[in-house]
Structure prediction request, 306 residues.
Amino acid sequence: MRVHKVRPASEGEPYEKQGGLKSASTQAREEKDKKEKMEERLQKIIARAGIASRRHAELLILSGQVKVNGRVVKELGTKADAAKDRIEAAGKVVEAKEGRRVYILLNKPPEVVSAMADPEGRKTLRNCLRGLPERVFPVGNLEYAASGLVFLTNDGDLAAEMLKNWAQLEQVYHVKVKGMLTLPDLERLGREIGVRMQTVRQPDASRGRAANFWYEVRMRDSKKEEMRRVLVKENHPVEKLKRIGLGPLSVEGIPRGRYRLIEQREAEKLGKFEKDAEGKEERKRDFTLRPQRAQRTQRRGRKEPV
Prediction:
């Protein structure tokens, strides 16, 4: 018969480490650790459910519009377990199960609020998303009078990463100004504002009656107000604004007021940013072309604004 030797217990060694039962304190500690691993910050849970972005979810918490198990929560650090706790945000119950992630490019018409609801009763992005079963929210903002590309998703992690680095995300606009800017004007104003400006084919050019001209501007979001200020000073105020590009994504091919779904791998490119180093030399553009040659090149390679 085989005899098993029993290792003598070391003095002061916990009983459970000697091969015995776990003490009540150890079990309680393990249960607490397990519970903490299952809990997440409320804003992350709300964003993942597609009710709001993390930033908007934080505002909902601070304004007392979030409840956990019937109790109003106003502290941003509060955690909960989406699988066990009943969580309500802005009157909507947060679903425990995680649905499919949705990524949308929408061509917003002018005079539409870049939100899913508006207290003033104006048209919102929801009017352009009829028939979409998932809850989504816009990332970033496109002003009420402007038109063009808006990105919407229910992926809270991607939205948080985008908003964190929003100032680094290049945006492309078609801008209509009062009057006409010359190529030297574009070069000078581009340097002053810190953007890249160039002409595009004018919709009315073939009929010879274009009084106010469109231009393409590549810039970071923080430069938009500076551009408006400088153009007003130059007596060429902005009349219309259309966003045609956001990072690597384009509004091309999407009719106004319509949207298209994109793949996750395409959307995740928005979360990868190239940070500008101080003093880094940007790609040079040749503004020394003769005006006639430049216009011919632009007519061949540029599409007119919508």
